[in-house]
Amino acid sequence: MRRIGSTVLVSAALLVTAPAFAGQGDDAPREAMVAPGWIATLGFSAEVATGGAKSLLPTTFDLRRADEPDNFSTPDDAMGFALIDRDGFSAGPAIDLRLASHSVAVDAGAFAEWWPDERLRVRAEALDNVGAGEGAHVTLGSDLVVAGPAASTFSAGPRLTLGDGDYFRTAADEGHGVHATTRFYAGATTALKVPVSPSVSTTIYDEFLTPLAGNGRRDGQAENTVGLELDFSFKVP
């Protein structure tokens, strides 16, 4: 998710326990997850940005057939629903939640994603705020995706974000009566996803953005966000 903040990085730690049920073998949860039907995944992310700005928001919603593999995504992806999905290309509507001017803003639009190689993803999003006048933005990015031990996944890649003055407006801008202009950010996102059980996974990530045009944050400095995402998968009829 996108964020608004000001100085100093904070680290995130996680604690997740997977309950063991009496009378069930180790393979029981896995068998339940691959049974016929659908699997829904719901994720929540806690973030700390430079300057101490914090947020706790839902960041992931995915629905797939139980016999399909889990879809790759990064915490800064908007939540999308693929109306087109073939030959490594997918596209469809998207929605995103972010902290803006001390409130939660809802952005809606579309995404397109292409996998030219099984380890390389290219993604574009175009989103506009719904109703509250919190601005529009376009984000382009790519990710190198590497499988690690114990079914973990590491990803890293560049980002470019072009937003209007309303999208990048900060509380500091408002307090000082500064008119925000169109701003152009470059940055990168890294993420490490680790499954805890067949139905629970955690992702630790870092998002870095620096302004290339406009003044970014009011003082024009780069921003960094560290976050922790917790995803829960469950079977639905």
Task: Walk me through this protein's architecture.
Residues 1-22 form the signal peptide. Keywords: Signal. The chain is mostly beta strands. The protein has a single domain (28-236), classed as Porin (Beta Barrel). The chain is 5% helix and 56% strand. The protein contains two helices and twelve strands. It has helices spanning 28-34, 171-175; strands at residues 38-49, 54-65, 79-80, 84-86, 89-100, 103-117, 120-129, 136-147, 153-163, 183-197, 200-213, 223-236. Strands 1, 2, 3, 4, 5, 6, 7, 8, 9, 10, 11 and 12 form a twelve-stranded antiparallel sheet that branches.
List keywords for this structure.
237 residues; mainly beta; Porin; twelve-stranded antiparallel sheet; 2 helices; disordered N terminus; signal
CATH architecture: Beta Barrel
Counting structural domains, the number is 1
Strand tally: 12
What is the structural class? mainly beta
N- to C-terminal separation?
29 Å
Number of helices: 2
According to CATH, what is the topology? Porin
> Percent helix among the residues?
under 10%
The profile of the biggest β sheet is: 12 strands, antiparallel
Going by CATH, what is the homologous superfamily? monomeric porin ompg
Compact overview of the structure:
Keywords: Signal. This protein has 237 residues and is mainly beta.
Question: How are the secondary structure elements laid out?
Answer:
Elements: H1 28-34, E1 38-49, E2 54-65, E3 79-80, E4 84-86, E5 89-100, E6 103-117, E7 120-129, E8 136-147, E9 153-163, H2 171-175, E10 183-197, E11 200-213, E12 223-236
Antiparallel strand pairs: 1-2, 1-12, 3-5, 4-5, 5-6, 6-7, 7-8, 8-9, 9-10, 10-11, 11-12
